[in-house]
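Input chain follows. Return structure tokens only.
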Amino acid sequence: MPVRYQITGATSAAISGSVESGIRSGALAAGDALPAVRALAAELAVSPATVARAYQELRQRGLIVTAGRHGTRVRPRPPVAGGRSALLPPPAAGVRDLALGQPDPRLLPPLGPHLAALATHLGPPSGYASRAVLPALADAARERLAADGVPAAEITVTGGALDGIERLLGAHLRPGDAVAVEDPGWANLLDLVAALGLRPIGVPVDDDGPTEAGVAAALALGARALVVTSRAQNPTGAAVSAERAGRLRALLAGRSDLLLIEDDHAAELARVPLHPLAGATPSWAFVRSVSKPYGPDLRLAVLAGDEATVARVAGRMRAGAGWVSTVLQRLVLDLWSDPSVAALVARAGESYERRRAGLIAELAARGVPARGSSGINVWLPVADETSTVTALRDADWAVAPGALYRIGADPAVRLTVSPLDEVDLAPLADAVARALRPGAPGAYAT
């Protein structure tokens, strides 16, 4: 039986520092249980109030989570870098990894030719940027957003979608404020909300996006911000429909106490139309990243919004990082301007559509319901996540447990279709059917 990590300290700061040290070293792993407040207080000869303050600080920093009868545990992905993180073993040989959620590198545009072309007309080295956003990039972004019905008179750029969302939340909210987030929703966003000391309120999601009743309930509970994924929602593949957008706009109209954030991370890769909520509230922002269509290493997102909201983000950027590299901005502008890149992105979107729809159809043919109306992910409801993940791993398929994405939603697993070829869909569906019904007759046995 492993020895439990010994938490030390005589003050709340020392106790929280000891827990953080354990997480950083790997002695306390994700999901590990911490002692109850009174038990740890007795062990350390301090008052229960001292331990409670330490745990409160750790919760506000997103390192631990308390879940009723499940006790207090280390969060699945606590926001602290561990010294052992670089030592994680690679996926087992022969296992197809459907858990990462990344685009297919075979379908990303090659950057080399564009970098070479950029080098020939970049000009002499420049100093500290006088403009945060290149005018040509801003003009091109406005044109692209306007074509999708997003007003973009005010615009800035950030270092990716999550960077933009973090700056938005940090500029408008304070620790302890409530944020309405999709449930299930983007794991990185849930981690960010925890790290900022904000309180998440889960909003149920169906194929048409966040439900009207769920958003109304979150507003009634005091949500100060609402984050909505426009399409290709991670992990369910939901896309906000025209009817849902109209109902949500009516519900949100005039809410001066609410910051509305829309995340259109799939952008040009999405094969479904955009139905934006932009402008439904006085304070709003629409964030569109270039990472999914053009490459995860291109850390740039366009952020449009009302004048005050964009000014706050730009001001925070100026006071910290300063600006997004103008070299990167020029590269993105060059990619946007190349018809061959646009054609490649369109083909990639169509390929993801075929693979995602094909997998859902193969699963349905085996009596296994799954969700995914856009994007690169399929959301598979299951009775038990651990047994499903284990059974699929034993069949050489790695999938992501739904616990990473859920607050109160039902159990499920996420399968990313980007590593798959169409010939893989039937074998994967067979493996899923066996994992969910291990005792069934061998219609799909190998």
